[in-house]
Amino acid sequence: MKVDLHNHTKLCNHAKGEIEEYVELAVENGTQIYGFSDHAPMDFDPKYRMKFDEMNFYEEKVKEIKEKYKENIDVLLGYEVDYLPGHMDKRVLEADVDYLIGSVHFLDKWGFDNPEFLREYDDKDIDSIWEKYFDTVEDMAKTGFFDIVGHLDLIKVFKYYPKKKTPREYAKKALEAIKKADMTLEINTAGYDKPCKESYPSKDLLKLAYELEIPITFGSDAHSPAQVSRYAQEAENLAKEVGYTQCAVYKNRKRYFVEF
Question: What's the predicted TM-score (pTM) here?
Answer without folding.
Answer: 0.97
